[in-house]
Amino acid sequence: WIITCGKCRSCKTKIPRIHLFVELSTTILFLICYLNFGFTEIFIVNCLIAVSLVVIMACDITHKKFTNQALIFLLFFATINRVLFDQTLANIVYSLTLGIVVSAIFYKIIYKNFSYIFINEEHFFDYIKLILIASVALDYQSFLYYFFEVMFILSLLSFFKVFSKKNIISIGYVFIFPLLWILIIQPINY
Description:
The protein is an all-alpha fold and 190 residues long. Helix content is 73%, strand content 0%. Helix 5 runs parallel beside helix 7 and helix 6 (140-159) runs antiparallel to helix 7 (172-185). The longest helix has 25 residues, at 90-114. The N and C termini lie far apart (38 Å). 25% of the residues are buried.
């Protein structure tokens, strides 16, 4: 996008700015992964996690929905990353169970009382899927910290009236940034 000045080389059609966002954010996240993990298998897995989260955020910004393919891709590599750290599936099942409970509570509290934030129920369930993937990606303590961050950001956005019944915006970043922070930018050593 930068090299071509936001235009196609052959037909000169404008390329959407979301491509610039994807290119810059993946470059920055790859650099952060390299600085945190060196050139190891964990670096490769975390780069793939970062790419999937950037794609999910770009889809949320442009289409206000997550693609199931990107969510499955994220789930696959989040599970691999977790197994590399934990060396067992039992801890994943434990934190996933916690994720299911937290997601049910989140549904009861947020969607039932603040459904106007979301375009429709499918839009809301995309966020629920991401919360469940976060529960697989993180140990239970990190997951609770992640969920606290998500709820804190949502509370701040609500307090400052960023969204209302007339102003529906994509809030995928509320769920994606804390996950990026915990997994890639500020990783917790197990």
